[in-house]
Amino acid sequence: MKIWMGKIVGAFLGFASGGPFGLLVGAFAGHLLDQALGKMLLGQDNDSGPVKQGQVQQVFFRATFRVMGRMAKADGRVSEEEIDAASFIMDQMGLSGAQRQLAIKYFTEGKDPELDLSRDLSQLNNLFVQRTALAQMFLEIQLSVAYADGRLSLEERRLFDKLCRQLGISAFQFEWINGRVQAAMAGGGKRQHSGARSSGSDVRNAYAVLGVSADASDDELKKAYRKLMSQHHPDKLVAKGLPEEMMKLAKEKTQEIQTAYDVIRKSRR
Q1: N or C, which terminus of the chain has less Cβ within 10 Å?
Q2: Which contacts of 209-218 are long-range, i.e. CB under 8 A and separated by 24 or more positions?
Q3: Any idea where the J domain is (predicted)?
Q4: pLDDT score, position 10
Q5: Rounded to the nearest 5°, which phi and psi values hold at 49?
Q6: Rounded (10°) CA dihedral 186, 189, 194, 198
Q7: Any idea which of 11-15, 56-60, 151-155 has the lowest mean pLDDT?
């Protein structure tokens, strides 16, 4: 597992204190720090070598439902819509029996403000260093629950800001993902029939789902579409650590992307 934060911080501090030469010294010192961290964190330890796939999936599963519970309770109470949204995600994952009870347990733990989520978020941050597609999927899941009542409250927005800082996700990345989730939910997951004509709002939502502007060229549109399809490919996500139970969610995301691309192409004919 590659860690870059030490090099970035070291280079910045070195440049600030010693100019270009300080930048080199700081970057090298940061490199040594990154190597030490890489042996301590999830990617590798001194005894067991690279972290096993099952451990990655376990971290993602636990953190997903704990943070989901914290998000649902962010504004002081858990609404029926938020409970339904969490249950819907469990249904989509096909969780039953012991697995569903475990997800409910983590969700309930997350609602408790006394529970410190810092360890979960630290482990997630380590996973996301080389698994940016997982970070995107994680935020999409949390946003789908937060928007269950139709909007982001101020408290939920503040919690997302805190999560992004702790997970190393930039404000720009968050707003881009947020816009795509809003557009997908506004579209209601509707699929256009092959002969149906798309409305103006359908087309606008489709552009937002792909994260491109309406004046994007055909090449830019295709590039954005292919990138998103690659990022959300279920097999690739599972290979990077997405729990297999969440594969159905990933498949639905690729369907949303495909539908949006088809809507835009049809509108450009």
Answers
A1: C
A2: 209/180, 209/183, 209/184, 209/256, 209/257, 209/260, 210/180, 210/257, 210/260, 210/261, 210/264, 211/176, 211/179, 211/180, 218/268
A3: 205-269
A4: 46
A5: 75, -155
A6: 0
A7: 11-15
Q: Has residue 77 got a pLDDT over 70?
A: yes
CA dist 135 → 64, 67, 242 (Å): 11, 13, 10
Residue whose tokens read 């870059």: 4
What pLDDT digit, counting tens, does each position of 93-113 carry? Answer: 778 888 899 999 999 999 999
Which residues, in sequence order, are bridge partners of residue 45?
A: 49
Rounded Cα distance between 24 and 10, Å, is: 9
Strands 49-50 and 44-45: antiparallel
Range 14-27 average pLDDT: 45
Output DSSP code: residue 76. Answer: S
Residue 166 corresponds to which amino acid?
Answer: Q
Tokens of 117: 């989520």
What's the pTM?
0.57
**Mean of pLDDT values over 238-263:** 74
For residue 4, CA distances in Å to 9, 16, 49, 248, 252 come to 9, 19, 19, 32, 32
